[in-house]
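Researcher: Let's do a round of design. I'm pasting the structure tokens now; please hold your answer until I've finished.
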């Protein structure tokens, strides 16, 4: 099997504006696909009261969020490997197709159990769409262009954290909660049609052996681990028998998976990705970014509304500063990593992340929205200089038939970071509130106590920023003596200049 990048820098330059314009519609399709996955992870938040009122199941509704994230996270490595075997196009189209079918089924669900099951199918589709979008960008754009384009995809995720809940509230209040799923139908059809028409791969397919046992072991072990992290402290106590059984069982199965993969000729998750310092450090950075984003997205709006006393729209705009800073810096990252190396670019991002996290610490009851927005904006700038460039470095360090696995591994760590972040930040906030339990007659937590709890969460974000900075310092230097520009000590992989991709 063979496939490769579109054109290298010279070929792209020679193609001029025409080549760039041909890629534009495909990029729009990838951004549209990404927005579907991103928005559906948050759009249900404001629709829960309407859903419960319609079909019941109040005690089960948290699973609408957990099952989606769980199904998405555990399937990313599997889809990534299949993309390296069969090409990106069929995998992303399968993901969009699953997402479309699941959206229709969710819209017609008549009880909570059905809705939860169909949300799981949605997550299975999302697990293909997100990493494939990132991988295709790595295939069709040159090294100097990828930071800008990855910034566009990152901005989609950031904007969705604001648009999703707002859109869910509008549909629930003025139309029907079922339209938060039905709206996906035309969008999925449009994205799928554009990708099917615009992207053509030349993939030499031969008989391949698919590691089904490894895929099953990996999926089962990760399912138990993420389930334990998501529901620990919520559905059961951390130090309870169910928590111990699930987490220990997950670890045991993953150990068995590791031992099995060592002897497998074509493993579903090649173990070499954990032996290259660049790939490990970039994945850890991605996990840290995922945790930081979930912490800010979860607690900044609550802090602004319940402590400072602003409305949900203004709170959303303050959080949107994070989504503004991220693509802004990501789009300019190429100006740093091309002449100075990926490590210097990531170090600049780590410094900004530390500064932004420090700006969160003085926030209290008498702070204002601009102060919060500035802190979020600086943090967003830092993430843009770290997340996209380190992923690009990882993609550039391997050949085409390894790029899907590398991208999927990076995305998986981000999902795991989000899952761990939900658990850790939730435990910190709940412990802080539990020590000073005081709920008013209207059911709201006393603002002083919520300020206390959120302050501890912000401290945890600061600690996380320090850990991310340490990992950034561990990024390798390449054999040319400079900062890593896409490879570890082996050097960066070459950028092929063949016609393995055709874009119409």
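Researcher: That's everything. Go ahead.
Model: Designed sequence:
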């Amino acid at each position: 099997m063979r496939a490769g990048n579109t054109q290298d820098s010279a070929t792209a330059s020679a193609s001029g504006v025409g080549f760039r314009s041909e890629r534009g519609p495909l990029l729009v399709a990838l951004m549209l696909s990404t927005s579907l996955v991103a928005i559906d992870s948050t759009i249900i938040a404001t629709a829960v009261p309407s859903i419960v009122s319609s079909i019941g199941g109040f005690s089960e509704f948290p699973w609408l969020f957990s099952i989606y994230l769980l199904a998405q996270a555990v399937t990313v490595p599997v889809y990534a490997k299949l993309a390296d075997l069969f090409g990106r196009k069929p995998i992303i189209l399968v993901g969009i197709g699953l997402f479309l079918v699941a959206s229709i089924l969710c819209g017609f669900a008549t009880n909570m159990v059905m809705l939860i099951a169909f949300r799981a199918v949605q997550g299975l589709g999302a697990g293909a769409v997100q990493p494939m979008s990132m991988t295709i960008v790595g295939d069709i754009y040159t090294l100097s262009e990828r930071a800008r384009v990855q910034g566009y995809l990152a901005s989609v995720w950031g904007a969705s954290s604001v648009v999703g809940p707002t859109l869910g509230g509008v549909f629930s209040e003025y139309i029907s909660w079922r339209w938060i799923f039905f709206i996906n139908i035309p969008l999925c059809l449009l994205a799928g049609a554009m990708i099917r028409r615009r992207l053509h791969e030349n993939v030499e397919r031969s008989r391949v052996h698919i590691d089904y046992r490894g895929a099953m072991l990996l999926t089962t072990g990760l399912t138990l681990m993420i389930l334990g992290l998501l529901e620990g402290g919520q559905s059961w106590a951390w130090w309870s028998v169910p928590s111990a059984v699930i987490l220990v069982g997950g670890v045991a199965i993953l150990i068995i998976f590791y031992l099995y993969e060592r002897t497998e000729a074509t493993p579903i998750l090649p173990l070499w990705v954990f032996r290259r310092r660049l790939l490990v450090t970039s994945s850890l950075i991605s996990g840290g970014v995922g945790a930081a984003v979930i912490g800010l997205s979860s607690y900044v709006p609550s802090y602004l509304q319940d402590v400072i006393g602003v409305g949900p729209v203004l709170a959303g705009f303050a959080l949107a500063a994070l989504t503004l800073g991220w693509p802004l810096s990501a789009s300019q990252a190429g100006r740093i990593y091309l002449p100075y190396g990926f490590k210097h670019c990531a170090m600049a991002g780590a410094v900004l992340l530390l500064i932004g996290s420090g700006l969160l610490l003085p926030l209290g009851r008498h702070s204002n929205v601009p102060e919060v927005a500035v802190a979020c904006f600086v943090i967003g700038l830092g993430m843009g200089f770290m997340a996209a460039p380190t992923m690009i470095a990882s993609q550039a360090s391997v050949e085409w038939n390894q790029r899907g696995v590398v991208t999927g591994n990076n995305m998986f760590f981000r999902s795991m970071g989000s899952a761990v972040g939900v658990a850790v930040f939730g435990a910190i906030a709940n412990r802080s509130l539990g020590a000073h339990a005081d709920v008013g007659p209207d059911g709201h937590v006393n603002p002083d106590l919520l300020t206390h709890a959120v302050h501890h969460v912000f401290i945890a974000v600061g600690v996380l920023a320090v850990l991310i900075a340490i990992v950034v310092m561990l990024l390798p230097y390449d054999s040319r003596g400079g900062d890593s520009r896409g490879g570890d000590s082996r050097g960066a992989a070459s950028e092929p200049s063949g016609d393995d991709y055709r874009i119409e």
